Amino acid sequence: MYLDTMNMISLLTDYGIKDSYVAEVKGVMLRINPEATIVDISHDVGNYEISSGAFHMTRSALYFPEGTVHVGVVDPTVGSSRKAIIIKTEQAWFVGPDNGLLSPAAERLGVQTVYEITGHPEFPRKVSDVFDGRDTFGPTGALLSRGVSPKDIGKEIDNYVKSEMYNPKIRDDTVYSEIIHVDGFGNCVTNITYETLDKLKVKENYTFELKVGEKKIKLPYLRRFSQVPEGDPLLLVAGGGYLEVAVNQGNASNSIGLSKGDKIELILL
Fold this sequence. Notes:
The chain is of the alpha+beta class. Helix content is 21%, strand content 32%. The protein has two domains: 8-157, Rossmann fold (3-Layer(aba) Sandwich); 169-268, Elongation Factor Tu (Ef-tu), domain 3. The longest helix is centred in the middle third of the chain and has 14 residues, at 132-145.
């Protein structure tokens, strides 16, 4: 039995909003399913930054109603032999390129079946090989949201590209992690989830040593920014469920010198 759909589609791209690309994708989706509600996750993902897109999709997908179709387009190799896929999970659908963009969110919700998109009569006439967001992913999302079976759009496959980004390595009391996102406040998001911290039996007020390159800094693990003086650094799990390096009313990226992609070590003292 296929997941019940509810005409709800989320859309995430690296298209920006300066050009008409997002409107074209939405136009095609609404033509196929005029009853659809389309919610924008973000269109400001950095160009070609699959990991950033995966982060935003993973964070937001948890909060959508069951049956939502999540369409993601961050596709550096559009026009190549990479697959276009549908991932069915226990709670939602994911549609996009098979490049690791969809897998972290889908795996968090429980992957059930994967399909390679092969086409459908309601797809728009294709005039280009480099706009799959409009010509393939958008239409697929709209069809699924309307209740069309994925078997009418693609064929079941066994394998898909998985991302290692959300699998920090743990050795003894050290977690080998990465900064996967820096938000607008300068908070530095790691790939360490609250589930990982639970496995390590980390509790409030524990102290970690953060090591990045030759730099070392001691940080308390707390629940709220206000638990340290203004301008002091800390570790906390913020709204997305990931451990963040932050500064109370400050910018951790600037003051500590952290950037997206930095490899870090967190040593439990």
